[in-house]
Amino acid sequence: MPKFRKKPEVDAEQFFVDKKPWPKGVKAGATYTSNPDYYVVTIHKQDTVIVDGDWIITEPDGLHHYPCKPAIFEQTYEKVVYELDGTPIL
Predict the structure, then answer these.
(1) How far, in Å, CA of 62 to CA of 18, rounded?
(2) Which residues fall within 8 angstroms of residue 49, CB to CB, at 6 or more apart?
(3) Alpha-carbon distances, residue 5 vs 11, 74, 78 (angstroms)
(4) d(C-alpha 19, C-alpha 39), whole Å
(5) 7 φ, ψ to 5°?
(6) What is the DSSP secondary-structure string of 20-42?
(7) Are 25 and 42 in contact (CB under 8 A)?
(8) What gap in Å lies between CA 57 and CA 73, rounded to an integer?
(9) What's CA 61's distance to the chain center, in Å?
(10) Alpha-carbon gap, residue 50 to 66, rounded angstroms
C-alpha cells in the first residue's frame, strides 16, 4: 500500500491555561457553563472543548483553528527546522 505525507506545513501552538496569550481561536467557555476550567475553540461555527496541553492548529486559510490531542499531534507532525537563510531543512 502506498504511503502519503501531509502536504501543508501547519502553524500550531500548544494550549496551556497558564500561558498567555492563548493561541488564536481559544476562548474561555465560562459563558457556556459554570465551570471556570472550560475552554473552547470554534470550528466552523461549533464550539469544541479543549483541555490543557491540546495543540491548536491554524488551517491553511489562516482564519480557522482546530484542536488536536498531543498524542495524535506527535504522530502526525514534526517540527520544521530552518537554515539560517530561512530555507526549511527537509
Answers:
(1) 24
(2) 29, 38, 39, 40
(3) 17, 14, 11
(4) 13
(5) -75, -60
(6) SSPPTTEEE-TTT-S-TT-EEEE
(7) yes
(8) 10
(9) 14
(10) 10
Q: What is the pLDDT of residues 11-68, one digit of tens each?
A: 899 999 899 898 988 888 755 555 666 788 888 778 888 889 999 998 888 888 899 9
Domain residue ranges of the chain, discontinuous segments joined by +? 11-89
Contact 48, 64 (CB under 8 A): no
Give CA–CA dist 27/23, Å, rounded. 9
Distances (CA, A) of 12 to 3, 30, 33: 24, 24, 27
